[in-house]
Amino acid sequence: MPWIILVLAGLFEIGWAIGLKYTDGFTRLWPTLGTVAAMVVSLSLLGIAMKSLTVGTAYAVWVGVGAVGTAILGIVLLQEPANAGRLISLGLIVAGIVGLKLATPG
Q1: Nearest-CA neighbor of 80 among 65, 90, 92?
Q2: For residues 67 and 74, what is the distance between their CA atoms, to the nearest angstrom?
Q3: pLDDT digits (tens, 9 = 90+) for 13-66
Q4: Could you give phi then psi for residue 104, rounded to 5 degrees?
Q5: Are 99 and 61 in contact (CB under 8 A)?
Q6: Rounded to whole angstroms, how far apart are CA atoms 11 and 67?
Q7: Where are the domains of the chain?
Q8: What is the pTM of this model?
Q9: How many Cα atoms sit within 13 Å of 27 on the Cβ side?
Q10: Which residue, 4, 5, 31, 71, could crosslink 22 as a Cys pair with Cβ 3.0–4.6 Å?
């Protein structure tokens, strides 16, 4: 269960990272409120997951899920470049997340 909670925390991290783009420097009310809500949920879920998982693993996976998801949404929603170097690098992050899962007991 802590791994599911951790992945959910990472998904909410994607939400607030992308949400930051739409807040326009926190000058738009609704995107700002959504972004702040996603931040609170993300950090809360991360804290819950850390009750059972090691700090290093939980934090690295949380950041990795957020980074990969945010980069993919940047490509899809914001027309950011999807060159081979970026895609290979994202694949390496995913490999690191999988490696941490496999190397972590429980």
Answers
A1: 90
A2: 10
A3: 999 999 999 999 999 999 999 999 999 999 999 999 999 999 999 999 999 999
A4: -105, 125
A5: no
A6: 10
A7: 2-103
A8: 0.91
A9: 2
A10: 31
